[in-house]
Amino acid sequence: EFFGNKIESIREFSVFNQRTVTKKDEAIILPKREFHLRDEELEKYLRGLEDKEAQNLRDRINLYQEIPGLEWMAPLFRLPQGELLDYLPEETLCFLDEPELIQREIGQIWEEAEERYQEADSKGELVPKPGAFLRGITSFENRIKKFQHLENHYLKKENLDFDFEMAEPDSLISDFSRLKKTLEKEENRGRRIYITCENSGQRERLEELLEKDAEKVIFLLLNLSSGFVFPELDLAVLPEHQLFRRYFRRRKKRRFKEGLPLSAYNSLSSGDFVVHVDFGIGKYAGLETLSIDEKKRDCLLLLYKDGDKLYVPVEEFNRIQKYIGKDGEPNLSKLGSPSWEKTKEKTKQALKEMAEELIQLYAERKAKPGYSFLPDTSWQKELESSFIYEETPDQIEAIEAIKKDMEKPVPMDRLVCGDVGYGKTEVALRAAFKCVMDGKQAAVLVPTTILAQQHHTTFTERLKDYPVQIEVLSRFKSPKEQKEIIEFVEKGKIDIIIGTHRRLQKDIQFKDLGLLIIDEEQRFGVAHKEKLKKFKKSVDVLTLTATPIPRTLQLSLLGAKDMSIINTPPKDRLPIQTSISRFDKELIAEAILREADRGGQVYFVHNRVESINSIYNLLRKLLPDLRLAVAHGQMEEKVLEKVMLQFLEGKYDCLLCSNIIESGLDLPNVNTILINRADRFGLAELYQLKGRVGRSNRKAYAYLLVPDFGDLTPQARKRLSAIQQYTQLGSGFYLALRDLEIRGAGNILGPQQHGFIEEIGFDLYCRLLDEAVREIKGEEIKKVKETKLEIDLDLFIPQQYIEDSQQRMEIYKKLSAVKRNEDIEELKIELRDRFGSMPREAEELLEVSEIKLLCQAKEISKLSLRRDRLKIEFDQSKKVGKEEIRKYREGLTYPMEFFAEENLKMELSLNSTENRLGQAKKVLQKL
Known about the structure:
The structure is a single chain. By secondary structure, the protein is an alpha/beta fold. Among the domains are: about 170-245, no CATH class; about 370-545, Rossmann fold (3-Layer(aba) Sandwich); about 575-730, 3-Layer(aba) Sandwich (Rossmann fold); about 790-925, Alpha-Beta Complex (Aspartate Aminotransferase, domain 1), CATH 3.90.1150.50. It is built from 30 helices and 33 strands. Helix 24 packs across helix 25 (about 760-775). Residues about 245-265 and about 730-740 have low confidence and may be disordered.
């Protein structure tokens, strides 16, 4: 915080609530770039170039506001050069891992840089010579000799040996079940046993599994790749992943301690469409300070049909939501017209009918007897402990809910929503294992053969240490194999069967089916869904979907549908680096080769089937050695599935495809995507396509290829710049996926609901749905009646206090949503913490919010405070007898009058020398 040019305080704050976490004495802020090129220096340099080169550079600066890769161009600007070794003190000890490999790598980098320089120079591009910014092998060796250094060689070198008697811990941990005996034996020998765990959750699970024997172990929170036994020191170190014979997952340090998706969903910008509960769809035109009865108020200006304007005081902000509905502009409502109320009534009626049907189905299902699964076995706990990733909170919540459902004596019917790669398969796998542990069979139904193969691989790998028979039934099996598998299922010799709906629903009979898992149900046809209903009647059903379902909708459906939502991305997911580029052959070749060189695979999206062959020929010409495959929706289904499966198995480096990229597939090895003519895609499509990569802890790249930047339409530029900005995980989720959310609502509630969402907006739809569900369930719907306040005070947040209008809006939004006095106190603390001492107007605004809460609690419909006269008008539903009036008179010392018309009114004369708002609060508290 600054006072003029003086720093008053340095504080760390939480991105979740913007509040201070700790105070600091100092902060080191690094520059954004290695150097800053001032305008005059740039112009001076540009004057020395040919006109075309200078203009090219200017265009790049204008497009990006800076030059990407400017550091590489430093030699051209004659800026001072440096390297890492220049910054190391003389006494630094350098560790060289495989010096021969380092030399070879330096040589390769030099050759590559030389090739690129020759290529760029031949095109007349501005690039420095490699020698200007790279060191050769000899130069590097001469520099490193000036430091003390240790060399690590894979092959032994003479006179460099130091031997420590170490042993592999295999003999100690051949089997987890024998670990307890091993611990006892080692303790008797006097050997200390350390077990390293990646996180406290793993440690707790191990302590639970080892029971009393956990006391014989020293647990360490460490991420160790492999264990060892050190006989000389009588100690053994065992990583928990080796105890369960799992491979080691190297953890990357997270760049940020905590993060939060952008609140683009809630924030309002001028021009956004909004829904006012009472007046309908309007357009937000900004925040304006008005003078009403000579007192200042901040109001939201909303524009309606025929240019009508509505000023909404900020205390009524909670009656407004951002419009989420159809793409494009919705129709504005007409102020004073009855059509808005009619639309709401029509929607309410349709929602009531739908909710009745949902609740009836839900009640029927809950009334049917089902199988009650036993609590978790020790094997279940062992399997869960062997999961190589740390579960996200959403995952844990979903797993617990499913197990609880399975242990109830009624059939389960739960829907799990979550993006691809967010851990739904692990959730399903644990449910299937629980089912098998109780002697029953589990069936996994998927829409495509490729997905069946992928699930089979995952299930087989995870359950390989347990006596569980898993099979896959798909068209890749011969008729003879299919027949044999069906026979084994009928005899109960197969515990988990995975297959496509076509294969599994033919004539298969289960010996004892306990759980049905349906993946991506919305992609099944109507006929298949009808067949599923027969399956669903008596067994537990778990449905998985990758369509994002908003939490508001989930809450509205409580008591009508059991749902779990997994919205948290897994740990170590890296943001996708996104760049917008012209369609450039060299760039395309380089992007594909870079990914192939690190053993990865590439998607090249070209959404014009008629010209996909010309792109295929171009890529063949550019990269003759590339293993390239083509996939699009007009291919025969068998051919398409075969290509996709071969790509999944790593038989191709690059898949040239239309935008039919398999949404259900999780391909962690595909980490580069090139999208041709990205300007022709919608924002949600781009977001989805971009999300096909970055499914592992590897850095992923998305290249949005466009024609000349000058030819792009303003809308295309806006879309592309938005998708480039939303690189953080979850950021822009609501903005870029809003049409997917509505599609998700359609999938759960039925397509006929889609139109109602478009007419009244998503938030109001959820609110009305919530009311419909509660009404049918016979719950009391307590509607909070708005209290009309007339107070002759300036009630607003001055611009001098919070300059940014977006931040002022955010505070008003919070204030309109308060439900308790504690919320107001929290807001006061936040305001003082973030913006300093509050001005009188802001203090009084918060005090008036306390008065409003009191009025709602006391069923007061109107309160007026002018000078020292306080008028209170009770709601018509409030019945006040003579006894209550007598108590009011005795409890209050102010002169007062009562009027009884349609409803009770009272007037009081306050003390003119005291704080009027404070007195009003005391009066309300006594009522």
